[in-house]
Amino acid sequence: MMTNRRSFLKRTATLASVGALTGFTRQSIMANGSVVNDRQFEVVSVDRTTVKLEYRETPRRNMDRELPHWRYIELCRVKLKSGQTGVGETLLYYTWGVPSETDVKRIVGKSAIEVMWDDTLGAGLQMALFDAVGRTAEVPVHALMGRQVHSTTPLSWWNIDTSAADMASECQEARKLGYVSYKTKGRPWFDIFEQLETATRALPAEFKIDMDFNDTLLTAEKGMSILRRLAKYPQVDIYESPIPQSDIPGNQKIVQNTRVQIAMHYGSPKPRLVVESGCCDGFVAGGGASSLTAAGRFCGEVQMPFWLQLVGAGLTAAYSLHFGGVLRQARWPAVNCHQLFEDDLLQEPITLQNGLAAVPDKPGIGYEVNWDTVERLKVDRPKSRPEPHRLIETTWADGKRMYTASNGKVNFMLTAANEGKYPYFAAGADTRLVPNNNSPEWRERYKKAREQGPIEA
């Protein structure tokens, strides 16, 4: 394997240029699709609809602390001259790219084949173009992307950091629905050892739990004892970004001293440097179709696994399956987060057997949107990211109590943790959202915590 990696890294390779990908798509349609006049791929119109989804009860308790804005999704419908309409979706406030009105205007009248590999179009618009082209050519989206190498692809259940009881119940819900992997966050405001002890009590060793620390272990020296202790649970399989990814020596030390696999977000440090240094075991890959395909091909050349991270509701998860079908090293379970919502917007849900979902073989994305649900849940698009005031209470076994207030930034708790403002993974940590009863006491505590916080009670 290392010989292959070295020879690959010594040469210059052009991975998935837009022109080459467009050429492949045309060749694939000619070889596998129905014979369609090229003019039939011309974009006639685009319309967009915003919906507000509700979280399931358990995710709601936890997502409302930090990510209430993930509820908002925009659906793009792209109609071609063929009469076929493709659909894509954008999680408006957590995505690699949000389509603009300018993006919409610049593709009308253009060939969908020529523009669909352009990542600057944003998530929902690009996805809708792939769906429309696949439907028109009567081929599945994966046939437009590359040669199919997998007929199934692994998916993981995801939730933000939760109480130990909520984590255990979510793992059981995942198992019931055919999942064998659960991904969550490792945070100092929860007792991660209590989480693992409670969740694994009723789980077989084959059910895997992956923990994303987002740098909160800070350094290898501080974090190694925690990582070793967690590794005693056979279910623990992957640590994501335990310390800053820029700390190559620290990450090397972690890789060398734990049996658990280490994942890093693809792109930083540069993938070549990551491979040469051996500072992780695999990647987290997302983004637009061109950049994701390039990342997947790189991982294929150096034989490093990765998981697909395309986040949204059901349509995003279905679209992700197609990348899983053509990218050989997409062997770690994908994170799509569609399990968070009461409604995933699909007529039929994505089903799993032993952690695997079938790569669709119907034209386009291969799943249909439930437009009755869309009609029921549609709202005006927010003018900016919704930012309700939130007050979060954290307690510890020694009686310590702290309050954190939302401050207009998304990662306000994570930032505080990485600045050392919470006790470092102390015993008995537990966290809850304090309901806003609009009382003078609540408002005063929120104001003080926002200005000075986190604050001790």
TrEMBL record:
<dbReference type="InterPro" id="IPR029065">
    <property type="entry name" value="Enolase_C-like"/>
</dbReference>
<dbReference type="InterPro" id="IPR036849">
    <property type="entry name" value="Enolase-like_C_sf"/>
</dbReference>
<dbReference type="InterPro" id="IPR006311">
    <property type="entry name" value="TAT_signal"/>
</dbReference>
<feature type="region of interest" description="Disordered">
    <location>
        <begin position="436"/>
        <end position="457"/>
    </location>
</feature>
<dbReference type="InterPro" id="IPR034593">
    <property type="entry name" value="DgoD-like"/>
</dbReference>
<feature type="compositionally biased region" description="Basic and acidic residues">
    <location>
        <begin position="441"/>
        <end position="457"/>
    </location>
</feature>
<dbReference type="InterPro" id="IPR029017">
    <property type="entry name" value="Enolase-like_N"/>
</dbReference>
<comment type="similarity">
    <text>Belongs to the mandelate racemase/muconate lactonizing enzyme family.</text>
</comment>
<keyword id="KW-0479">Metal-binding</keyword>
<dbReference type="Pfam" id="PF13378">
    <property type="entry name" value="MR_MLE_C"/>
</dbReference>
<dbReference type="GO" id="GO:0046872">
    <property type="term" value="F:metal ion binding"/>
</dbReference>
<protein>
    <submittedName>
        <fullName>Galactonate dehydratase</fullName>
    </submittedName>
</protein>
<feature type="domain" description="Enolase C-terminal">
    <location>
        <begin position="166"/>
        <end position="372"/>
    </location>
</feature>
